[in-house]
Amino acid sequence: MKKRLLALLLCGAAFLTAIPAASAAFVDIPDETTALAAASLQGLGVVSGTSDTTFDPDATLTRAQLCTMVVNAMGMGDQVSVYARKTLFSDVSSSSWYNGYVNLAYSQGLVNGYGDGTFGPDDAVTYGQAAAILLRMLSYTTQEIGSVWPADYTAFANSLGLSDGLELEDNDALTRGQTAVLLYRVMNTTVNGSDKAYYETIYGVAETQEIILLDTDASYGGSSGLLMACSLENGSGDSIVYFTQKNVQSDMLEGCAGTLLCNSAGQAIGFIPLEGGWEDVTVASATASGFTASDGSLFRVSGDAVVISGGSLYPYSTTGYLQVNAWKGKTLRLYYGDDGSVVCLSLSAGTTAASQAVVASSASLSSLAAQLQISDKTYSITKNGVLTDQSSVAAYDVAYYDASAGTIRLSDYRISGYLSAASPNVAAAQTITVAGCTLQVLESAWETLGNFSLGSEVTLLLTDDGKVAAAYSPSQLEADMIGVLSQDGTSVTLTGSGLVLRAETITCDVSDQGSLVQVSASSADTLRCTALSSSNSGTLDLTQGTLGSAALAPSCSVYEWAGDGYVYDLEGNMGTASSDFEAITWTDNLPSSYVSYYHLNSAGQVDVLLLKDVTGNCYSYGRVLLYSGQDGINLGSGSMTAYNSAAALVNSSGTSGKSLCSISLSGGRYAGVALGQHSSGNTIITAVRTLDSATADRDDFFLDGDDWYVEADGTVLPISSQVELYLASADTWLSGEEGLAVALAEDTDLTLYLDDASGSQVRIILAE
User: Fold this and answer.
1) Domain locations in the chain?
2) What is this structure's pTM?
3) Which positions ≥6 away from 370 have C-beta within 8 Å?
4) CATH of domain 691-767
5) Rounded to the nearest 5°, which phi and psi values hold at 309?
6) CA atoms of 488 and 501, how far apart (whole Å)
């Protein structure tokens, strides 16, 4: 169930039509703290840029400029004209732009002149001078600070944390960037003699709300230019709220948690972001109580936490964790409460939050950032939804900037095929269909799509959320498409993107059904699938994330098989891929003999990996039943009967159908079997995993964390989470932890069957 409470604080249609667009982030501030400070003060009307997109953070600040910033920070900018009618200092003329600001700051007891009737408005302001002014803003007096200036004042300011990370000396001339950080810190500091943060005392602030700022230029109900947020008034996500903006906030603040300042009319007049309090992580899996990151870290999620997805809220413990689990392999932003628990999780809004999508002209990150008009700004990078770095950038990658997460999102997803449909037309398509896959189209693709018509062969470049960003001729750029051919041979699911390709005819070797294949379009209604060719790979280093000399892509799709037949992820789920190596716990290195296939992306990284017989999880375990003669499978026709030996497997799923079996087995044997597709259309057992046996008593079993183990013959053995259990007294098969509990409750002899792989696990337990 999603939750979307709309608290629209609107002040009339006439006002709404005049709302300006969101302020663009300053592109010349590489330091994140300074960038947040400048963006926050810009939204409060305290500072402005040297242009629409630049701040010039390293420029020296003058005493007059500091007065201007301080007066605006107090919320008293609209009173400046009253103080501009007289001259208090001989070097501050009534015609100067800063006259009213200097006079107002002096009247508030914040600044002093030099004692000779002058003020020095154009002099560089020092840290000592600024410290005195800032402490006066916070209502501290000489009696509390000390009488020695500037040493006592800078020391006191340092003790409040105002200068953390700035490394300022008393007489250092302040820059615009440093001053922005100091004033931002003042905003979050408690005023002396009160329990209020300074931002609560600003003139014009009538109320505050704790929020996550989602969008500074949102539209709703026919109104635009709204501030969209997730309310955190109850400690975690409570509702989606919208505000009109008297002061338009910078898009740099999107994705930040903090305090929204509103006037008496309910309009947003400023936003004070927290420093930190959130983290970007890549999801491996999620349950109702928390989730696991790709590096194995476990995150506890509070009971009232919510997931922000697509502009709606989902309670984490009911429907939200399903949203997160569907996000596996991709990066989300999580927000912490005061106790360190996760109170809110935000999934990327994808291209709906992007101003533009571009195609990288080279492997240069700086060049790409310039294309996105965010050069020299602090940002994180994802590729195919997973956190990465500049080494993953390659020419022809699609990129867009997700301001809500401060992230450049890259993708190398592509498909090649014949353009079979477009709506409403190719040149201005909203959707197009290629290789049986219908995709949404971004406006950025229209220019390149205009070179094609229905029936044309085309390569589509896609965003990380599967939208078409550009189109090229296959002669210029062809997609290298790898995917899992369905068991019935009617579709192919591409690795990474998960896009499903279909055609009237799919030509393939039947034995490749259910396995990884190379796919290409032969015509508008035909796809051709071919088996992958193995190649020399080198050692797979799980710690370093390398295969031989090649790095693994952060979004590498990892499959496993028995050396033939169907493919699985490392946890044993058929036809899907793993995004990590958590299931391999017994080694950090695998020799090349365990690697059946690998694929390199355009950045030279391994993005598809097929492992052979590593975990044992691509087998099904139980008691094997053998069939021969007329009890087998008849592959003949008419009067020409031809019976082949077959086998079936008995376990908690019941008795499987017969599969062709040419492998020598003993009747009634306990084993693991791997399946594939036979040219006849029947399944076939492609490999058998033999099992060793051992005995154990009930007292030998123990739980460590969430995992069960047993000590047998002096060796501690892990028990598979899908362990099969046969209860002889009831002639019943059970599985997993539930079955184990039943087996341990009975006073029976226990026989263990464990696979012979490295890191072997108990696969079957017989209770007799």
Assistant:
1) 32-197, 278-347, 351-411, 540-612, 620-690, 691-767
2) 0.71
3) none
4) 2.40.50
5) -150, 125
6) 14
